[in-house]
Design a protein that fits this description.
Number of domains: 2
Largest sheet: 5 strands, mixed
CATH superfamily of the largest domain: ATPase, nucleotide binding domain
Number of strands: 9
Number of helices: 8
Radius of gyration: 19 Å
Shape: globular
């Protein structure tokens, strides 16, 4: 059975293709001004990599903020549902999933089947997401990819406001004027984000097996801060930014099997 999962995010579109729950290929592209076109591109490239045609696919399922614009989709699944399904596939004992993307962060609790039982979303403000790191990197005049390694050089961090990107940027500028070091300010940024995210997770309850996914899961600075705040070492999959698309493809496989019964 061949299934395809598409995750249409605010910055990137990801596609994962499965054959009987085994990953055949994965591709991503920038969403740009036309997420539908970007999704078509990733599907075409992933199918080519897997040496398949569209008519070989049993079911397409979409997720993400732009899932209603997904091409080919037979159905959709929420990001929380996709995260839960993929987390259990990757880590069988996982029960708590933290997903931090470009514009939004969420925490999900699931059962042993990968079914979501509760969730919390940090929306309306990007202060707890990747856009917050990007804004603070600009204020520090540091490359985005250098923020994490830079923060690891700090021995302490000054508190900053993570309730709003604007307030946070103002705090960073104040720290710069006080001649605080860039490593300490960078760590302050990640600590502030981790505070916000960990408070969401504690509302659900922290299970020992905590999985971190999304694009920000590749940032060593945020991982270090989150581990300190939660008091556990979070689990990170090999491709954390593809977890939503993987979850959608797994949901597609489950739904396709149900229709064949």
């Amino acid at each position: 059975m061949i299934t395809v999962g598409m995750d249409l995010g605010t910055q990137t579109v990801k596609t994962v293709i499965l054959r009987d729950d085994a990953v055949l290929s994965r591709k991503q592209a920038f969403s740009g001004f036309d997420p539908t076109k970007a999704a078509e591109q990733t599907v075409d490239e992933a199918l080519k990599q897997a040496k398949l045609q569209k008519n070989d696919v049993n079911l397409f399922v979409a997720t993400g903020s732009g899932m209603e614009m997904a091409p080919y989709a037979n159905s959709t699944v929420s990001m929380m549902g996709a995260d839960a399904k993929a987390a259990i596939y990757l880590f069988s004992k996982a029960r708590t999933i933290i997903d931090v993307g470009a514009e939004e962060a969420r925490a999900v609790k699931c059962d042993e089947r990968g079914v979501m039982v509760d969730f919390v979303v940090n929306e309306r403000c990007a202060a707890g997401a990747g856009a917050f790191i990007e804004a603070m990197a600009r204020a520090l005049e540091v490359k985005l990819e250098d923020m994490g390694p830079l923060s690891l050089k700090a021995e302490r961090a000054s508190p900053i406001n993570a309730s709003c990107v604007i307030f946070g940027e103002s705090d960073v500028v104040s720290l710069i004027h006080r001649q605080e070091s860039k490593p300490e300010i960078a760590r302050a940024v990640f600590d502030a984000m981790a505070d916000r995210i960990s408070s969401m997770v504690h509302r659900l309850g922290v299970n020992p097996e905590v999985v971190l996914v999304g694009g920000v899961a590749k940032d060593v600075g945020f991982i270090a801060s989150l581990n300190r705040k939660l008091g556990v070492n979070v689990l990170i999959p090999e491709y954390p930014d593809y977890v939503g698309a993987l979850g959608a493809a797994l949901v597609a496989a489950h739904r396709a099997k149900e229709t064949q019964k």
